[in-house]
Amino acid sequence: MNMMRTAMLIAVMTALFMGVGYMLGGTGGMMIALAIAAAMNLFSYWNADKLVLRMHRAQEVDERNAPEYYGIVRDLAKNAGLPMPKVYIIDNAQPNAFATGRNPENAAVAATSGLLHALNEEEVAAVMAHELAHVQNRDTLIMTITATLAGAISMLGNFALFFGGGRNNNNPFGFIGILVAMIVAPFAAMLVQMAISRTREYSADRRGAEICGNPMWLASALRKIAMGAKRQVNVDAERNPATAHMFIINPLNGQRMDGLFSTHPNTENRIAALQAMAQEMGPTPQNWSNTQPESGAASGPWGARPTGSAGIRDKGDDGFKGPWS
Q1: Quick check: 168 pLDDT over 60?
Q2: Is 177 helix (H, G, I), strand (E, B) or coil?
Q3: HEC states along 230-241?
Q4: Does the residue 148 lie in any domain?
Q5: Residue 293 belongs to a domain
Q6: Which residues constitute the domain of residue 104?
Q7: Which ranges are annotated Basic and acidic residues under compositional bias (predicted)?
């Protein structure tokens, strides 16, 4: 049902984009809008993951310089039957995480340094399982397409006066068409994008809980991340608000309600759904290491470590030192 709803919302977004083109330039404008949408989505399909990671200054890590974090992602990917994604750390005090990539074979997951500091091992595992669920559900591609279309509609709205004003007889709706293109269409596109984002979060919560094996780990993580997001400003996210929907919790300051203008469902509603899922599942593992007997118990940022360490090793360094130090 969620996939069908998402497909319908993307269809609405595409129709809205073509409709804006028609309002500004008639049939010719509609075809130009379709061509622009196709070109932008093609570019996003191949390059959106790199652009998003660059926007947030993510640094790729591996089992040599982030053994515990990398190992958790590796074990979770194995549990989910997914290829090993690229693993990144973002030097940001706000606890948060996101996934990106056009398909499971070209996916990446990223966690902030704030998340690795604030959460325990089980909670980190649950968050990364949630992100891998997005990869498995192809949400990363879906959200890339919707974000691209929403941005394109807003772009047309910003240039509505230029394309539709003056004596342009190709505009069949006159001033009304320009007004719709400038205000109504971008607003509608934003609402559709938010509806898709919120639909996919509930699905990823459930699948993520299945991957890590304990819904309460994710419920606890969501509560901590939501509290941290209120206290810590994510400067890079504020500069690039179009990427907010990708994070597990809205990184933008002040977005707290489960209303029309929220990119994410209300955190308490998500926690309640996970609690109900935990009751359905019955007894669940109490320790992440118990679910990963082959990998052994991880230490690093979630166990005994030197005072002041970040639990992340630099390449060729026997000590603990994070890329954000």
Answers
A1: no
A2: helix
A3: HHCCCHHHHHCH
A4: yes
A5: no
A6: 2-284
A7: 312-325
